[in-house]
Amino acid sequence: MKTVNNLDEDAPPPATLDVVSEKPGHSRDASPDARCPRRAPRQEARKLDPERSCRLLLEAALDEFAAKGFAGARVQDIADRAGVNKQLIAYYFGGKEGLWNELSRRWAEREASFNQPDAPLDEVMVHYLHDALDDPRGSRLNAWVGLTGGEPEAGREDLSDLERRKAAGEIGEELDTGAVLLLLMGAVAAPVVTPHMVRSVLGMDPQSPEFREFYTEQLRRIVRRLG
Asked: Per the record, which residues fall in region Disordered (predicted)?
């Protein structure tokens, strides 16, 4: 985690901020053009770097959500991880739910960058797998949500891409795309949320390069069999 100067806990939110914001989930990437919602500044506030503060808060929120789930994560703990005043969460994001929504937006952007229509399904799933192995926080967050609930309401999953792939022959006619999606999501998350089963079933360390190479190739073969 990056080191920042702690702010006085009683200090008010920053004043002269011309804020541009920054996105689930699982993404940890921060970009200069990310957006923070504009809010009316307070006269007595001190000037801060808004992009840096937003980035640190989003990283801290992802850490907390992955460790405790949405329901279990506390605003104060997120602020403590980020090393900033907790008032900045409301100032930039409108509260804990705003952090969740911004992380979800970022993940959707990241997902769109590699889940391209012309990419074979097995390559797309390998990208999901490597993303989860490189940064397991998204998979852990989803596991917590399933166990504890309490997350902001989300819309129904869009299956149009899998329906298109089914029409193109990448998924068998007899297979339901929703069931396929659940199967693939489980295959990607398993090494992260059930590492003990990887050791028990395969006798391999789920964090080892050997497992990564083996499981990547097996996932490719399984996905190809779907067609």
From this structure: 1-49
